[in-house]
Design brief:
Strands 2-3-4-5-1-6-7-8 form an eight-stranded antiparallel β-sheet. A hairpin with a 2-residue loop joins strand 2 and strand 3. It has 123 residues and is of the alpha+beta class. The chain has three helices and eight strands, in the order βαββββαβαββ. The protein is globular, with a radius of gyration of 14 Å.
Amino acid sequence: MRQPDIEIYLKDADQDAVSAWLAQALGDCSPWQQKGQTFKCNAGGIPVTWLPRAVGKWHSLLLESDATPWEDDLSCALAAFAALGVEIRCAPGGWQEEEGEDDADRWIRVNAQGSSEIVWRTD
């Protein structure tokens, strides 16, 4: 089932490299507009939010649409790793608050060794 939006976390990723990847994957990327700590742009008609250092060295990338080339966070994470070569983390699926805190710490790590489920305590 296609997710309503895509969110991945990129370790030590360069914002310019991410912009170039978004332009290649989605279409032309508008200039980033800074609003407080976040940056927003539009890539191929898709609203994008970039939050530098959302969790330590990890930057959050949120694609606010279900019209991306990726069905879910994992497929986007795999594509981002292939294009950028930095470790990516994403949720294993949509998380709902009623699922509890333990499930909130379940993540998928994508790196040179492939993808694997990990526990990542982000608080």
